[in-house]
Amino acid sequence: MSLDVSVDALSRGRAFVDLSDWKKLAVRGGDARTWLNDLVSADLRGLRPGHGCRSLLLSPTGGVRAEFGVAIRDDAILLLQDPLQPRSVGDLLAPYVLSSDVRLADETDELALVAFPRDPGDLHVGAPTVDRVSPSCAGDTGGVDLLAPAEVRGALVAELAAAHESAGPDALEAWRVAAGVPRVAVDASAADLPDEIGLAGAVSGDKGCYLGQEAVAKARNLGHPRRVLLHLAAEAPVEAGDEVLADGAAVGVVTSAARVNGAWIALVRVQWDARELPLRAASGAGMRRGPGRGERPGVTSPL
Fold first, then answer.
1. pTM of the model
2. Cys staple from 138: which of 9, 94, 115, 188, with CB 3.0 to 4.6 Å?
3. Nearest Cα to Cα of residue 140 among 71, 226, 238
4. What does the alpha-carbon distance between residue 213 and residue 145 come to, in Å, rounded to a whole number?
5. CATH number corresponding to 226-303
6. pLDDT per residue over 86-139, tens digit each?
7. Of 231, 226, 239, 241, residue with least CA distance to 273
8. 10 Å Cβ neighbour count for 126?
9. Which pLDDT tens digit goes with each residue over 44-60?
10. Domain 3-179 grouped into CATH 3.40.1690.10
């Protein structure tokens, strides 16, 4: 199956990807939900088993230290983290346990994780040990995650492959760029605020305190972030690391790029004041809001 076909299948809910290598932190204990809700950026109070959300762990200055999916199960709150991120959310959270009734357990090797970035609709899974959580941790674009004991991973993947396409990591990455989904450690650094990298949707505006809240509120009260992540179409090949120019001056950088159905799509981090200027890669490729395939809250889309 070609890359374009795989990306299309992922976009239509006809393909899944095996994310069993993602980090999986289980949070348990009588104080688990309250304790975690006081630390992370999303509001976890109303989530029920089978539901989840995208969340962040911020530094006291509001920088993104970790991004992860939250999955509520009957026996635990699971934090699902892209292994590309340099710091495990478990290691980052451990110093805050102190005397709370909270237990953290790394269950990466104990659980299989299979994701449909887009909701497949009539998804039928025969195994009774599979938990479904929506939305998917693959990018908060709808979708569903399937969590199961690691020993049934092979059987689960085989069952799904009988009715759906199995996409690999290259297809998932191309789909992510085409959909405009930011990836921490690729499109962001620990110095970036959520609003600067298209992750504003992972921050609740209704909950009480959480780590970095004051810094996030202060930045928002100033009127706008220092920089912004744009979702653009390029007129010629571009790649991550390419410098981006406006009126001949460097104003940003391509953080992610992919070629999908003959079109080059990119995530580009630029200075706030340059966000509406004509942009061009240093290679000469013009960049515009064109035939992008999706939109993320907080990311300026090419649509």
1. 0.92
2. 115
3. 71
4. 29
5. 2.40.30.110
6. 999 999 999 999 999 999 999 999 999 999 999 898 888 887 789 999 999 998
7. 226
8. 8
9. 999 999 999 999 999 99
10. no
